[in-house]
């Protein structure tokens, strides 16, 4: 009987260990969709606007500086600390902010409508956007804080559709280059 006591104790301890491990794993399991609180699904542009609104001016400037330097992890950490959001929400917000750059807007001015599509008065962003075009051995670069992916995409679409005058005018309006320099740049975008 005494010879069986040690193996029985080992079996009991192993069983308890398995039960504790199973319980710990069960607690770490993600929530099922029924358990999770409903959150509206937002597109990344809307998420970027919401995320930018949660930052003060200094946090906004530092976050975009980190994004521009390619330091995504540091940007996520900064956003997480600034807003108190979770890690996944912070990652999604920083990704949206990088994909859809947002200018800093003070908190007390929500009643002013945003004029994102206003072509007459380009807005200035807290970072410099670099657009590069090349064909063969010729390369041109335009760097401006009045450009972003969306605006540059519209300029490229105009150039590729053959409306080079409108593309050059838009590039001149959203940068500090002359019309001649803009035309040279647009000529490299045409196909």
Mean pLDDT: 81
Contiguous uncertain segments of 5+ residues: 33-38, 115-119
Shape: elongated
Biggest sheet layout: 2 strands, antiparallel
Residue share in helix: 55-70%
Strand content: 5-15%
Q: What is the succession of H and E elements?
A: HHHHHEEHHH
**Distance N terminus to C terminus?**
90 Å
Trace the largest sheet across and list its strands: 1-2
What structural class do the secondary elements suggest?
A: mainly alpha
Cα-based radius of gyration, to the nearest Å: 27 Å
User: In total, how many beta strands?
Assistant: 2
The helix tally amounts to: 8
Describe the structure.
The structure is a single chain. With 191 residues, the chain is mainly alpha-helical. Among the domains are: 44-99, no CATH class; 129-189, no CATH class. The chain contains 8 helices and 2 strands; from the N terminus they run αααααββααα. It has helices at 2-28, 44-53, 57-68, 72-83, 87-99, 149-160, 164-173, 179-189, and strands at residues 129-135, 138-144. It has a two-stranded antiparallel ribbon with strand order 1-2. A hairpin with a 2-residue loop joins strand 1 and strand 2 (138-144).
